[in-house]
Amino acid sequence: MLHTINKSPFASDSLETCRRFLQPGDSVLFIEDGVYAVQAGNKFASLIETIQKNNSVLALHPDLGARGITVVADGVRVVDYEGFVELVEEHQVNSWL
Predict the structure, then answer these.
(1) Angle 45-52/14-21 helices, nearest 10 degrees?
(2) Residue 82 near residue 75, CB atoms below 8 Å
(3) Is the confidence at residue 97, as pLDDT, over 90?
(4) Alpha-carbon distance 62 to 92, whole Å?
(5) d(CA 97, CA 94)
(6) Which end of the chain is more exposed for a tag (fewer CB within 10 A), N or C?
């Protein structure tokens, strides 16, 4: 399963809600304002690290750039639009809005 999160964790509980439903091997892709969750050194760093123990964590590069985020947490894979499309083709998607 691919979980997409598009809301900032500073303004929404989507990340925490998603975390409760994750199964081992699921992927979490942060898009739009959701990318604030993976910015290196913020208050969500430990939660991202916990998620990474059983799940892959990804962020959409154009959305990082649009928000001026240049450094992401260790282990976060950055993907472009092509990578995003490949993930959607490979997985069932659950969007946390």
Answers:
(1) 20
(2) no
(3) no
(4) 23
(5) 9
(6) C
Give the DSSP H or E segment for 29: strand 27-30
Q: Do 46 and 13 touch, CB atoms closer than 8 A?
A: no
Nearest in space to 32 (alpha carbons), one of 3, 59, 2:
59
What are 93's two structure tokens?
Answer: 């998607």
Q: Which fold has domain 2-96?
A: Hypothetical Protein Ychn; Chain: A, (3.40.1260)
The H or E element spanning position 66 is helix 61-66
Among 5, 38, 1, which Cα is nearest to 22's? 1
pLDDT digits (tens, 9 = 90+) for 38-64: 999 999 999 999 999 999 999 999 999
Quote the CA–CA distance of 78 and 72 in Å, as a whole number.
Answer: 9
List of residues 6+ apart from 9 with CB closer than 8 A: 15, 16, 34, 36, 37, 44
- In this structure, what token pair is assigned to residue 10? 């500073």
